[in-house]
Amino acid sequence: MEKLTLSNLSLGEIKRVVKLRETGIGNHLWTQVAEISLDENEYYRLGELERILKSDPVHLLNEATIWARAIYPLLQLAERNAEHSDIRALAGVPLQARYARFTLEGIADGVIGRSVTGRIDFPYLVMVEAKRGIEGQNPVAQLYGELLAAARLNWENSPHDPQEIFGCYTIADSWTFVRATVEAIETDRPTLNTEHSQEYTEKTDAVTILKILKSIISSCAHWAKVEA
């Protein structure tokens, strides 16, 4: 049984344990959110957030400050306006999952999902806040590991195959979303399919980011409620 740690995963390790099928950046159907509506309060809050970010040297701030001032407030706004009151956005969420030939273990920087008594029961979206400087590395491999872990956890609660799960990595105030499906979960070598969105920057794209978050929550909350 191979043990994989999320914080130092490489794409080579991912490809060794799963069949990886990547679709590049594109205008995928799940990123087309023009029909998602926002109310006056949401537009006001987004405007305030954009004004704060435009006055901050975001790329000079450390990750903890950016998370507190830019990333988490947007997650909270998506959570607060979710149709389902049990949807929560949490930071520093432990993830641990066991597949047939490998295990995954680590901490997700952020998770949106169905929460029960302070823990995430169904993860809908897992997040990686990319480190910068000498500790910086490509966040994609870690995000793929989190997606695999979250899909397995959801499968244990609702064993249908494939599992759909969403992810996002942030670099400063820029967001890139990933939609994933995990197939053949119980086999020795599952398949991970991924689609990447374009990069969205909060200073100019906060409305689109919130709409994508709301769309993900709405879609995932529906199947989680049905399967619960």
Write the layout of secondary structure elements.
Layout: E1 2-5, H1 11-17, E2 19-25, H2 40-54, H3 63-80, E3 87-98, E4 102-116, E5 119-129, H4 140-157, E6 163-171, E7 174-183, E8 191-201, H5 202-227
Parallel strand pairs: 1-4, 2-8, 5-6
Antiparallel strand pairs: 3-4, 4-5, 6-7, 7-8
Helix pairs in contact: 2-3, 2-5, 3-5
Low-confidence stretches: none
State the share of residues found in helices, binned by percent: 25-40%
The Cα radius of gyration reads 17 Å
Count of discrete domains: 1
Fraction in beta strands:
25-35%
Write a structural description.
It is a single chain. The protein has 228 residues and is α/β, with parallel strands linked by helices. The chain is built from five helices and eight strands, in the order E-H-E-H-H-E-E-E-H-E-E-E-H. It has one domain. Helix 2 packs across helix 5. It starts with a strand and ends with a helix. The mean pLDDT is 89.
Summarize the structure in short.
The protein is of the alpha/beta class. The chain contains 5 helices and 8 strands, in the order E-H-E-H-H-E-E-E-H-E-E-E-H.
List keywords for this structure.
228 residues; alpha/beta; 37% helix; globular
